[in-house]
Design brief:
By secondary structure, this protein is an alpha/beta fold. The chain folds into 4 domains: 105 residues, Resolvase, N-terminal catalytic domain (Rossmann fold, 3-Layer(aba) Sandwich); 104 residues, Putative Large Serine Recombinase, Chain B, Domain 2 (Hect, E3 ligase catalytic domain fold); 122 residues, no CATH class; 73 residues. Strand 1, helix 1 and strand 2 form a beta-alpha-beta unit. The N and C termini lie far apart (51 Å).
Length: 507
């Protein structure tokens, strides 16, 4: 059978997002192109884009209907319609696929949004960083002509700029739409708006970064990037003619002062100044409740930071508090220890390369180009109809459809641009192995490194006293030599993607 259901979700705050009607129309066209038979449509309207699954009635109804065997595919407009929370998304998808053979498909995005994609994004960020470092070394070695002339040297393109080709030289010019977003971010932060509130406002306005919603961490580096002032240090020299100014220097300096005052980003709560890296991913093994930030001050005035079970705070659980720093280090150690197994590393590298090959394949690009062409053709026909229409009601209907097409076309073009960039940087298994080798050499005591590992490679951690169960995004392996009966009732749905380690030994 090739039965499918459609799941559509629309946030009332995001008025520039694709409408429910637009999502349904595009999902139905996608289903028709794949030969799927639509048996049901699930819709959640006017819900917060970041609300958890418990608040989405139709979403939960769809999960309840999954065991019936009446459908084998779930079609969404974009993967973030299924869930914008990576953890929830992966858990639900893994369960649907493992238990019921159901796949989640996007009508606009090629390749499944799975664990391979998560780690692949981590690799891309690392590769961009390595490219920039190599470029800087070459500049220091004497290749300064491009910098002196203001021509673009390559590397990762900063948000806010686009490339202009003149004969054989490339120059940077301002991308006005992205520049407006940057100015909004800097001005809002300078006026004491939190990063999360800024991200929420941008999402509500329909803005996206790399085709994904903004988060509070998206623009951490942007707020520190002096290139936006038009003057910066590069290769040991001051450069003033490569980047045009987007942010006024006075505004940039004001933001730097505020960043320095708030050098610790919020962790478990809005008032927490210490970064709680496992927030949202750590759960009590005694009762299954989320563990949150906690702390206190000792007799000598020294501050202590912990993770504590929510129910323990209400005297409803026996789980003791856990030292924040020790636990975060322990979890990262588990990841690196887990990846010492060559079989796991080989399998991981092959999966990432397979994901890359699927994502950048000719068939995917042809499919994307075909969608773009069909959308452009429809837009042209609607333009003619609008001009010829005499009824105001008909004109309004055409305008609504044109807005849907504009949003859809923009999403497709962004997808195409990103894939073309990735396709130009051929990814091999050797590249992935080099990345993993670099990862294994990371400083386990460095908070930035810990954050990178936890954010990208872990989606849940369960803990009872002195024992930790880490659920990796990598998945697929487990240690069979340790029994943890006490956690079984909480972990049944994760069988096959768990590894266990002891807290003993103070590693």
């Amino acid at each position: 059978m090739n039965n499918a259901v459609i799941y559509a979700r629309y946030s009332s705050a995001g008025q520039n997002e694709q409408s429910i009607e637009g999502q349904l129309r595009i999902c139905k066209e996608f289903a028709e192109s794949k030969g799927f038979n639509i048996v049901k449509v699930y819709m959640d309207k006017a819900k917060s884009a970041w609300s958890d699954s418990e608040k989405r009635v139709d979403f939960n109804k769809m999960l309840t209907d999954a065991p019936s065997g009446t459908f084998q595919n779930i079609i969404v407009y974009k993967f973030d319609r299924f869930s914008r929370n990576r953890t929830d998304s992966m858990i639900h998808k893994a369960r649907l696929k493992k238990e019921y053979g159901i796949k989640v498909l996007s009508a606009t995005e090629p390749v499944s949004d799975d664990e391979g994609g998560e780690i692949y994004e981590m690799f891309l960020e690392w590769n961009d960083e390595k490219y920039s470092q190599r470029l800087s070394k070459r500049v220091r070695d004497g290749i300064t002509t491009s910098v002196a002339n203001g021509t673009y040297c390559g590397g990762s393109l900063n948000y806010g700029y686009k490339i202009r080709q003149e004969l054989k030289a490339k120059y940077l010019e301002i991308d006005q739409e992205q520049a407006d977003v940057l100015r909004f971010i800097f001005e809002q932060y300078a006026n004491n708006t939190s990063k999360q509130d800024i991200a929420d406002k941008l999402n509500a306005q329909g803005h996206r970064y790399r085709n994904k919603p903004f988060t509070s961490k998206t623009f951490d580096l942007w707020l520190r990037n002096e290139k936006y002032t038009g003057t910066f240090e590069y290769g040991g020299r001051t450069c003033e003619n490569m980047y045009s100014q987007i942010i006024d220097k006075a505004l940039f300096n004001k933001v730097q002062e505020k960043l320095d005052k708030n050098k610790y980003f919020a962790g478990g709560t809005a008032t927490a100044r210490e970064p709680y890296l496992l927030t949202g991913k750590l759960f009590c093994g005694e009762c299954g409740t989320e563990m949150v930030s906690d702390g206190g001050t000792g007799k000598c005035g020294k501050k202590h930071h912990y993770y504590a079970c929510k129910k323990k705070k209400k005297a409803e659980c026996v789980k003791s508090r856990e030292s924040k720093d020790r636990l975060e280090r322990r979890v990262v150690f588990d990841v690196l220890d887990y990846m010492k197994d060559q079989k796991i590393v080989d399998d991981l590298a092959e999966r990432i390369v397979e994901f890359y090959n699927d994502r950048t394949s000719e068939s995917e690009m042809k499919s994307l180009n075909a969608k773009i062409q069909r959308t452009q053709d429809e837009a042209e026909k609607l333009t003619t109809k609008f001009i010829e229409a005499e009824s105001k009601l008909l004109k309004a209907s055409i305008e609504k459809r044109m807005t849907e097409l504009e949003t859809y076309l923009n999403d497709l073009e962004m997808q195409k641009s990103q894939i073309e960039i990735e396709k130009g940087n051929q990814t091999s298994k050797a590249d992935i192995m080099n990345f993993i080798e670099y990862l294994m050499q990371g400083d386990i005591d460095n908070k930035d490194f810990q954050k990178s590992v936890i954010d990208n490679l872990i989606y849940k951690v369960f803990i009872i006293d002195k024992q930790v169960l880490v659920l990796f995004i990598l998945g697929g392996y487990k240690h069979d030599d340790i029994d943890l009966d006490k956690l079984n009732k909480y972990l049944q749905e994760y069988v096959g993607v768990q590894t266990l380690s002891s807290m003993a030994g103070g590693k």
